[in-house]
Amino acid sequence: MTEHYTPGHSDNATDFMARRSLHSHGQFFLPFLKQGIEVLDLGCGPGSITLDLAAAVSPAMVRGIDFGPSQIQKAQELAQKLHVPNVQFHLGSCYQLPFPNCHFDRVFAHAIME
Ligand SMILES: C[S@@+](CC[C@H](N)C(=O)[O-])C[C@H]1O[C@@H](n2cnc3c(N)ncnc32)[C@H](O)[C@@H]1O
């Protein structure tokens, strides 16, 4: 499916999203997290929330997926800068996930269905 992402990925919009954290924007998800479970973050953007998810379930792997190349690049840079080993970012669409069915214990999605 081809989709146009209307808000775009300007530096301004990306910086705005990168200030988000799991605690500021994902409180609803905290009761569903525990160490060792695998989590997918759909439409992860620049990855700040994804990295918090990784901290919450470490050492299990968290994967973020986004169809914005600039978002995946920013997310990977942030993970390297903060030395987060248990996170991987994937360029791709939520409509065609490059993972096997039933692979994840939890799937997180924030601010993607606008
Ligand atoms: C408003 S941002 C939210 C980013 C992050 N979840 C957050 O809350 O900070 C929405 C993100 O979803 C991504 N996105 C929207 N539709 C998508 C789709 N069909 N597949 C993959 N990514 C998508 C956009 O590229 C954008 O980075």
Layout of helices and strands, plus pairs?
Layout: H1 11-18, H2 22-25, E1 39-42, H3 48-57, E2 62-66, H4 69-81, E3 87-91, E4 106-109
Parallel strand pairs: 1-2, 1-4, 2-3
The structure holds S-adenosylmethionine (SAM).
S-adenosylmethionine binds next to β2.
Describe the structure.
This protein has 114 residues and is α/β, with parallel strands linked by helices. It has one domain (11-109): Vaccinia Virus protein VP39 (Rossmann fold, 3-Layer(aba) Sandwich). The chain has four helices and four strands; from the N terminus they run ααβαβαββ. The protein has a four-stranded parallel beta sheet with strand order 3-2-1-4, covered by helices on one side. The chain starts with 10 loop residues before the first helix and ends in a 5-residue tail after the last strand. The site of S-adenosylmethionine (SAM) has 20 residues, from strand 2.
Task: Provide the CATH architecture.
Answer: 3-Layer(aba) Sandwich
Would you report the number of β strands?
A: 4
The number of distinct helices, counting runs of at least 4 residues, comes to 4
**What's the domain count?**
1
Q: Decide which structural class fits the backbone.
A: alpha/beta
User: Which band does the percent of strand residues land in?
Assistant: 15-25%
- Low-confidence parts: none
| CATH superfamily descriptor | Vaccinia Virus protein VP39
